[in-house]
Amino acid sequence: MELIEQHTCFGGRQEVWRHRSGVLDCEMRFAVYLPPQARQRRLPVLYWLSGLTCSEQNFITKAGAQRHAAEHGVILVAPDTSPRGDGVANDEAYDLGQGAGFYVNATQAPWSSHFRMYDYVVDELPRLVEAHFPADDRRSISGHSMGGHGALVVALRNPGRYRSASAFSPIVAPSQVAWGEKAFAAYLGDDREAWKAYDAVELLRTAPEKLPLLVDQGDADEFLESQLRPELLRAAAEVAGHPLQLRMQPGYDHSYYFIGSFIGEHIAHHAAALR
Ligand SMILES: N[C@@H](CCC(=O)N[C@@H](CSC=O)C(=O)NCC(=O)O)C(=O)O
């Protein structure tokens, strides 16, 4: 592991690390914010999954999350959104390939050799974080758009592993919208049965753990009706009796201005569950 960035921030440290990922078979970067309390004791971790086109940088430079993490004594970890590098498959489009890993384990060539973001987020990254930083095994997860999809899927598939889950503007039903159909066909193949393991609306129907979900969605989001479709999550939650707080936020779009406006409430929500 190599430290490639460090900044003092709200009395703690914002760091960026580079490491060799065995799961992804490439070098990866992730950001970690260590609040001031981390100098005294081990702390819980909130994992943040970013959206299409993002790296580990977008969340740490745009969301304003560090102030709230310092207040609540929560470590923030934000990985990159895909494997990267010259030897890693890519596509010219912004919504496939590098920067668009969709938090799945790809089964199809040419993606399957590196694109295993699901295993990276669920297993390899937490193992690394809990071994190298003053972190304990209390975990929560959140994310935005493609990362909101990732956060919901990871939480729903791993009962007992996360204390809380939330999302901003998530792609709730990737099997039913263009972003998800394109990515899942490429990464997972044409058999839609295989897609269900990575679709929050599908997973929620049979989720063994009723982990309450907090979702914020701007009603002026340019992707609301074409790609996000939060009403599908609401309907599935009602049928399954799954606790969901879906808040439609008037006037907000898909940007980090929206995330910055509500990230404090999400971190407070996670901090309460992590206590
Ligand atoms: N380039 C595309 C859309 C790119 C975009 O809006 N990316 C979002 C996430 S969208 C879903 O995962 C994002 O977080 N961008 C980074 C940022 O810092 O804002 C287009 O222009 O349509």
TrEMBL record:
Biological processes, Gene Ontology terms: formaldehyde catabolic process
SUPFAM superfamilies referenced in this protein's UniProt entry, alphabetically: alpha/beta-Hydrolases
GO cellular component, one term: cytosol
Keywords associated with the record: Hydrolase, Serine esterase
InterPro entries per UniProt: AB_hydrolase_fold, Esterase-like, S-formylglutathione_hydrol
Keyword Hydrolase among record annotations: yes
Keyword Cytoplasm included in the entry's annotation: no
Catalytic site: 145, 221, 254
E.C. number: 3.1.2.12
Entry similarity comment: Belongs to the esterase D family.
Function recorded in the entry: Serine hydrolase involved in the detoxification of formaldehyde.
Name the UniProt record assigns to this protein: S-formylglutathione hydrolase
Organism per entry: Luteimonas cucumeris
